[in-house]
Amino acid sequence: MIEARGLTKVYGMPRDGAVSALRGAGERRRNAVREAGGFLAVDDVGFSVSAGEIFVIMGLSGSGKSTVLRMLNRLVEPTMGSLLVDGADLAALPQDELRQLRNRKINMVFQHFALLPHRRVRENAAYGLKVRQAPAKQRMERADWALRRVGLEQWADSYPHELSGGMKQRVGLARALATDAEILLMDEPFSALDPLIRRDMQELLLQLQSEDRRTIVFVTHDLNEAMRIGERIMVMRDGRVAQCATANEIISAPADDYVTEFVADVDRSRVLTAGNVLRPPLVTARCGESPVEVLKRLENVEMNGIFVLDETGRVVGVATDKALAGALRDGGTTVESCLGGDYHAVPADAPIVEFCDLAGRHTVPIAVVDADRRLLGVAPRAAILAALAVPKKVRHA
Ligand SMILES: Nc1ncnc2c1ncn2[C@@H]1O[C@H](COP(=O)(O)OP(=O)(O)OP(=O)(O)O)[C@@H](O)[C@H]1O
Ligand SMILES: [Mg+2]
Predict the structure, then answer these.
(1) Residue 39 CA: which ligand 1 atom is closest?
(2) Which InterPro entries match (predicted)?
């Protein structure tokens, strides 16, 4: 849906001068721009966003997030680079088509929604449609529909000053929803809200997004917010891309020391999953095997229990060393006679927070299984603890 290549923005100097200053590479570019009196705010940024995706741009203040976002609808003109939106080359669009695109396809949501104080909530929600000159009746119906979706239908006739900050923000969201823009550009839309309301808004956004998927580019400097809502996250540093990946990839394989330090405070147990701590089981048993064979196998690895699998690899239960020894005494012939259910199974995408308390409770590690309950591997307690341990902070010069 959106494809950006080599996006670059120099502030404070004419474009031609900027382009010639940008001829160098790396730090040389930045210095040349500075010496020429400009400021390199965004430097060679490329990414693509698929239809229906929530793509998050994250970084410290001044890293260039808003500049990138504004280049996506040419509120800021890129100094260099190319930008395709739904196949159309944005730079080549004449003014009237650009206006069309901004009116119909792309909607921008700001941190302060700039509600019109003397208009009722309904008219505020309909504002984006008014700009597009939709008929009045249709506008109001659409606004009511959007207000219902954000849970504000009973406030439609109120004025903005009668609403709390969170409610105002929801009106802003309703305004964006009321339009049928396929692309929503959101610049820190929740950062003025207090933490609880902010979480509600994140939930609401995710819920709305699951109902009708739009393409959302979302700017935030809050890492936990980025990890909660972003399918992919682009971490920016000084106008460049430090890493662009899923939350899970960023946490489990940070691109460099900067990203490592940046993500050190995130709640890893909510982002990392069973799949991240999956190991092949040291031993397993098959249905039909004799207790004596299985007990020997356990002895060799000094474990107290073993997963018993059927011929398709499905977990049928756990045999403990005790139960196996008992079966030996009582003359049991197969491992099935000593099966128990003392284990916990999770899917590979289960966040660690959902099962870490249970690690070490059973004689066997947590089982990681597929939808048919086939054993994919185990999540040993030590692997879970190692994954959750925050890497030592790296010092930055
Ligand atoms: N119109 C402008 N003229 C000159 N410099 C600008 C302009 N807009 C932004 N900048 C500079 O470009 C850099 C990137 O700004 P930008 O607003 O994109 O950052 P940001 O990541 O959105 O920061 P924040 O989190 O504070 O909103 C900053 O150093 C800023 O001072
Ligand atoms: Mg900004």
Answers:
(1) 5
(2) AAA+_ATPase, ABC_osmolyte_uptake_ATP-bind, ABC_transporter-like_ATP-bd, ABC_transporter-like_CS, CBS_dom, CBS_dom_sf, Gly-betaine_transp_ATP-bd, P-loop_NTPase
